[in-house]
Amino acid sequence: MRRRRQGQTVKERKPLSRQRLGFVIAALALLTLALLVTSLCIGSTAYRPWQLWQTTPDAQLARDVVLQLRLPRSLAALAIGGLLAIAGLSQQILLRNPMADPYVLGTSGGASVGALAALLLGAGSAMTSISAGVGALASTLLVFSLARHDHSSQQSRLLLTGIAVASFAGALSSLLLSIAPDGLLRGMVFWMLGDLAGAPWHIAAPALLMMLALLWSFARDLNILSHGQQAAYALGNHTSQLQWLLYFASSIATAVAVTSAGLIGFVGLIVPHALRLLLGQDLRLLLPATVFGGGCTLLAADIVSRTLLAPQQISVGVVTALAGVPVFLWLLQQRGGAR
């Protein structure tokens, strides 16, 4: 009877009305627009967007501040936040565990080691991105290959192995920082804390759209995979191909985010977890909602980082960590109460 009720519950959750999808996406899009306008209006200087069309002497300076500094940074925050959130969601599907995250599984650590090594060797931006992607994919494959030796407790082994690999990557990053010359050290340390200044939104945004379109096309199959590999295999899905798809998506998304803005934690952990509690498990709704939610979260954190101690700026990674820990603990209590 219990299995039958569970089966009926899963069946009832499958249909996704277009009205609900449209309402949720419209609400998140309006929230994104509101935060974007707020980000363009707030900063260490008093220039506002409506000054762009004035004929005052400060109009040109206002254009430079709003269009050349605030707008690219805000777009980068939206794109990079979406990448971090979609990477966290991909790894949570792989583990069927809401505690999975690029930080927890060492994906961000591997990407940072690859990027720091390339920076230390004097590589350009393209080679740095490639090195970060190789590091992210290598750490992800290492974690999953080591954890697969024991199928009886694969989820717990994945988390423990990910923590070990993340710690090892952190030690390697510290080693690279310790041997870096003084001319590079300050920039590398600030980048490690998370920095959106000068982040290339024109690279992060296309990568985000590509990852979203790729995962969206397999949303129905991923819905089945989220109930377990045996259930997906019994229904004729190619579980190994879906797993490789999630490996690829989480690694590329993490690599682009890390090379663009450094190490920013808790976005990939909290946003998918919170939206899953609010919206349910259907990835056809959860995928676009996660992208919007991640972008809004990082943009809000960037607004705080620019205004809290203005004109001095705080690293956005520090803001997400300070805000993410209590929010995550609260979500854990809400999840426990619901159970």
Instruction: Please count the helical segments.
Output: 14
Just name the CATH architecture: Orthogonal Bundle
User: Radius of gyration, Cα only, in angstroms?
Assistant: 21 Å
Tally of domains: 1
Oligomeric state of the chains present here = single chain
Shape: globular
Care to describe what's here?
This protein has 339 residues and is mostly helical. The chain has a single domain, classed as Orthogonal Bundle (ABC transporter involved in vitamin B12 uptake, BtuC), CATH 1.10.3470.10. Helix content is 77%, strand content 0%. The chain contains 14 helices and no strands. Helix 3 packs antiparallel against helix 11, helix 3 (59-95) crosses helix 12 (267-279) and helix 4 (107-120) packs across helix 11 (239-261). It starts with a helix and ends with a helix. The model is unreliable at 1-14 (pLDDT under 50).
Helices and strands in order:
Layout: H1 2-13, H2 18-41, H3 59-95, H4 107-120, H5 125-147, H6 154-178, H7 182-193, H8 201-217, H9 219-225, H10 229-234, H11 239-261, H12 267-279, H13 283-307, H14 316-338
Helix pairs in contact: 2-3, 2-13, 3-8, 3-11, 3-12, 3-13, 4-5, 4-6, 4-11, 5-6, 5-11, 8-11, 8-13, 12-13, 12-14, 13-14
